[in-house]
Design brief:
Blueprint lengths: L7 E4 L3 E2 L2 E2 L4 H11 L5 E4 L7 H7 L9 H13 L4 H15 L16 H15 L1 E5 L11 E5 L24 H7 L3 E2 L1 H17 L5 H6 L12 H10 L2 E7 L10 H5 L3 H16 L4 E6 L15 E4 L7 H10 L28 E2 L5 E2 L5 E2 L2 E2 L10 H6 L17 E3 L3 E2 L8 E9 L8 E7 L11 E7 L8 E8 L1 H4 L1 E3 L4 E4 L2 E8 L5 E9 L3 E5 L20
Parallel strand pairs: 1-4, 6-7, 6-8, 8-9, 9-10
Antiparallel strand pairs: 2-3, 5-10, 11-14, 12-13, 15-17, 16-17, 17-20, 18-19, 18-23, 21-22, 22-25, 23-24
């Protein structure tokens, strides 16, 4: 927030420690505006919160969408002295300051003729750069252009470009994988494609999309996965050189995820994968899984059965072309996991606490008449989220944070620090060399292990990362990381300060949170108070937090 300074921020719907976020002065003014130095304006989510006066006093500049009841409440509060005009002035000023920066205010003459072709190229490149190659046994990828591909899975013909509700954006088109393969000159098994296209067309006819509001409240479900019988799969294996099984998942506003048939594969998907791998492997032909998903799923049920797995995420309008770019080798995958893929959902540190306890007897009618059931979640995992938990407690994941393969290989030189002691700033350099046969990029990650004399600390924390340029075989690039006081510090609740403990620190540079290539150490001679903050957002109930000395 400090570095990017966006023009607007939205407060959320939920309560923290019993107070709506949009009514929390601790959150919006004390932390966001005072401590973080935020200079933009804050708006509520639509119909968020309950008390318009409290929202204005908290520091919301704009209440969305704005209702006659809120207007009357605010005017009455000013007249009664409950709300000072100076608060209104301050909130209005925050909006005006942003308006003065806008191109519209500065009379920018826009052409209304955006270079959509160039924008599409950027979208395609960004999607391909973000994809993560999770598995590639026997160099199953890239796929040779001469091969005939049997493409199984509904969403290979109906791309999930983005999330649901506000998790999506309007787009002129969405390229499916089937379209992307065709555009690149690949031959796909015709019977498979025709079957899926006809099936999805029939489903769409029988389940037309509703209007925007209805879709938000009750999204039209995707078509159930089409099921080829074992005999049909065997026939396709005889006529094809390689199989792709495409798995799609979506979630977002108005469409939360669940464990069964979402995080986990459906029984039908498992059956299809078994039939496909049995048929194709019997003929010594590879099976590749493409994951068109927005969040983590269980990979352990199929990981050992297939030859390659490409995580494509939700890749936007050019998704099918971008996926094909990676499958074909036109783009060497260089994405790394920004989240841990657990071996089991129960291995996740928040699994025992989330989604918490619901209170159906206190249900109310919320926005647009949607039923709202209050719930309460206690975040007992404390600082041990994601890789911090898995690494500290030795819980082996399916794929660790920072993981990602390439079609080439890289070597790491020993890391060099410019000093053996920390004195305000410290730099580390490391040289990456492409030791393989094709050009590629590597994401280099710096983790830091800190002493835990007074404060509880995870075994290591990510403090920096950088992607090399496109390195040709044999070529190298030197990466420099800079560590500053804030990189060493952790929050000390007792003193409301960010503090770095004196002692020995270890810099770990590698290709993932578990694949460390080189280490070096430095010393901090005495405790360092990096930042003193207000006491804010204190919990109203006792929280028995996980710490490094005890597991769940």
């Amino acid at each position: 927030m400090k570095n990017s300074q966006p023009w607007a921020i939205m407060s959320s719907y939920n309560l923290i420690n019993g107070t709506y976020t949009s009514e929390s002065r601790d959150l919006i003014t004390t932390i966001l505006k005072d401590e973080w130095g935020y200079r933009g304006f804050v708006m509520t989510d639509w119909f968020g919160g309950k008390d318009a006066v409290a929202q204005l006093k908290a520091g919301n500049n704009l209440l969305m969408p704005g209702t006659p009841t809120q207007v009357k409440t605010i005017i009455d509060a000013v007249k009664s002295g409950q709300l000072s005009e100076s608060v209104l002035d301050e909130n209005v000023e925050g909006i005006l300051k942003v308006m003065l920066q806008t191109p519209t205010f500065k009379a920018y003459e826009y052409s209304n003729h955006a270079d959509l072709k160039k924008h599409a190229e950027v979208s395609r490149e960004a999607a391909a750069e973000s994809m993560v190659l999770l598995k590639n046994d026997g160099n199953s990828l890239p796929i040779k252009n001469s091969m005939t591909i049997a493409v199984f899975g509904n969403h290979a013909y109906e791309l999930i470009a983005g999330g649901t509700g506000s998790g999506d954006v309007n787009k002129a088109y969405a390229i499916s994988l089937a379209d992307g393969l065709k555009n690149a000159g690949y031959k796909t098994e015709k019977d498979v494609q025709q079957t899926y296209v006809a099936y999805l067309k029939d489903y769409t006819t029988k389940h037309p999309k509703k209007n925007l509001l209805q879709e938000l409240m009750n999204p039209t479900p995707y078509a159930p996965e089409y099921a080829f019988d074992k005999k049909g799969v065997d026939e396709k294996a005889a006529r094809s050189d390689v199989a792709i099984f495409y798995i799609g998942r979506n979630a977002g506003e108005g469409n939360d995820r669940k464990v069964a048939d979402d995080y986990e594969l459906t029984n039908l998907e498992k059956e299809m994968l078994t039939n496909i791998t049995d048929a194709f492997h019997a003929k010594h032909k590879p099976v590749i899984v493409v994951l068109n998903i927005g969040g983590v799923i269980d990979v352990t049920s199929f990981r050992d059965k297939v030859d390659a797995i490409l995580l494509a995420w939700q890749p936007g309008q050019e998704g099918g072309n971008a996926i094909t770019d990676v499958l074909s080798g036109k783009v060497n995958p260089s994405g790394k996991l920004a989240t841990t893929f657990p071996a089991s959902y129960n291995d996740v540190s928040s699994a025992k606490n989330f989604p918490g306890k619901e209170f159906p007897e206190k249900a109310t009618a919320g926005m647009f008449g949607m039923k709202q059931i209050p719930g309460e979640v206690t975040y007992g995992e404390g600082i041990y989220v994601g890789y911090r938990y898995f690494n500290t407690f030795g819980v082996k994941p399916a794929y660790e944070f920072g993981y990602g393969l390439s079609y080439t290989t890289f070597s790491y030189s020993p890391v060099k620090l410019n000093s053996s002691s920390f004195n305000g700033q410290l730099t580390g350099t490391i040289t990456i060399t492409n030791t393989g046969k094709v050009a590629g990029k590597e994401v280099v990650q710096l983790y830091l292990s800190a002493p835990s004399n007074k404060l509880d600390k995870p075994s290591e924390e990510l403090k920096g990362f950088a992607k090399t340029g496109l390195l040709q075989p044999g070529k190298s690039e030197t990466i420099t990381f800079t560590l500053r006081p804030s990189d060493l510090a952790s929050f000390d609740t007792n003193s409301s300060s960010w503090v770095a403990d004196a002692g020995n620190y270890t810099v770990k540079i590698g290709a993932s949170s578990s694949n460390i290539k080189s280490t070096a150490s430095f010393k901090l001679e005495k405790d360092l108070v990096v930042e003193k903050d207000h006491k804010a957002l204190a919990p109203q109930a006792n929280i028995n937090e996980l710490n490094g000395k005890k597991a769940f």
